[in-house]
């Protein structure tokens, strides 16, 4: 979401909607994220859960580290606060991938 519009990726409905300034109706791009391929359930949540179960089964470390996951939550929280408070929300710069 920004001053010139917004983009919503809706994982539960497998779609993308783009809102542009001055537009009464949202622009819906000619693509979507279908949750089934060849009759099989797919998608980011299915893959995330399957990876989690695989890590439990094999005792391997997950692809995303706890520090990386925390960084993502911090950024998402700042975005939500920024929208609610209608101002920039500073984030301490931390390299979660170091």
Overall description:
This protein has 2 helices and 4 strands, in the order ββββαα. With 98 residues, it is an alpha+beta fold. It has a two-stranded antiparallel sheet. A hairpin with a 2-residue loop joins β3 (36-37) and β4 (40-41). The mean pLDDT is 75. The protein is flat, with a radius of gyration of 18 Å.
Largest sheet: 2 strands, antiparallel
Strand arrangement across the biggest beta sheet: 1-2
Helix content: 25-40%
Number of alpha- plus pi-helical segments: 2
Give the topology string: H per helix, E per strand. Answer: EEEEHH
Beta fraction: 5-15%
Euclidean distance between termini CA atoms: 28 Å
The average pLDDT is 75
Note the overall shape: flat
Q: Which structural class do you get from the secondary structure elements? A: alpha+beta
Q: How do the strands and helices of this protein lay out in sequence?
A:
Layout: E1 6-10, E2 15-19, E3 36-37, E4 40-41, H1 44-58, H2 66-85
List key phrases describing it:
36% helix, 98 residues, alpha+beta, 14% strand, two-stranded antiparallel sheet, 4 strands, single chain, 2 helices, two-stranded antiparallel ribbon, flat
What is the gist of this entry?
The protein has 98 residues and is α+β, with helices and mostly antiparallel strands.
């Amino acid at each position: 979401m920004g001053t010139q519009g917004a983009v919503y990726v809706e994982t539960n409905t497998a779609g993308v909607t783009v809102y542009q300034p001055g537009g009464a109706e949202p622009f819906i791009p000619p693509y979507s994220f279908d949750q089934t391929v060849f009759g099989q359930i797919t998608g980011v949540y299915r893959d995330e859960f399957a990876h989690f179960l695989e890590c439990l089964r094999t005792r391997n470390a997950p692809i995303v580290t706890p520090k990386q996951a925390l960084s993502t939550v911090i950024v998402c929280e700042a975005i939500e606060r920024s929208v609610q408070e209608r101002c920039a929300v500073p984030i301490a710069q931390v390299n979660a991938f170091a």
